[in-house]
Amino acid sequence: MTITAMPGAPAGDAAPEEKKGGKKKLVIVVVLLAVLGGAGYWFFLKPSGPPPPPEPGEVTALEPIQVNLAGGHFLRIGIALQATTTVAHDVEGSKALDAVIHVYSGKKLEEVMAPKEREHLKEELKKEVDHLYHGDVMDVYLTEYVAQ
C-alpha cells in the first residue's frame, strides 16, 4: 500500500503553499544580494573624487615663426609647450605651430598688441593645442612676441 497524501490534508493544497513560500524566499535573497553588492561597491570600489591634476613634465621650446597679420603687418611669435609626465618623449611641435598660424594670422595689429586680447588669444591657442595633443600638453608659454 502506498500513501500519497497525509490523512486530513487535501492532496493538492500542500504544493502551492510551498511554491509561494519559495518565491518569497527567492525575492528576499535577490534583494539582500543587491543591497550587499551596492554596499560593497560604495565602500570598496567607489571612485574617490576627481582624478589628480596632471603633473608638469618637460618643456619643449619651438623655433619662433612669423605670422602675417592684417594690413601688411607681421607677428614673430615663439612658443614653448609644457608636457605632462604621462608623455614619455618630447612633444613634436608641428601641430602646435599650425595652431599658432590658425589663431593669429589675419588679426589686426591692435588686436595682437592689446594686453587683454593677447591673453584671450593665448587661451584660445592653449585650448587648440590641448585638443590637438589630447591633453598631453598642459600649458603653452610665449617665448617671443614681436609685432611690426
UniProtKB/TrEMBL annotation:
Keyword terms: Cell membrane, Cell projection, Chemotaxis, Cilium, Flagellar rotation, Flagellum, Membrane, Transmembrane, Transmembrane helix
Membrane topology designation: Single-pass membrane protein
Domain of life: Bacteria
Gene Ontology CC entries for this record: bacterial-type flagellum basal body; plasma membrane
Transmembrane segments: 26-44
Biological process per Gene Ontology, one example term: bacterial-type flagellum-dependent swarming motility
Localization per Swiss-Prot or TrEMBL: Cell membrane
Family membership noted in the UniProt record: Belongs to the FliL family.
Function comment: Controls the rotational direction of flagella during chemotaxis.
Protein name: Flagellar protein FliL
Organism listed in the record: Nocardioides perillae
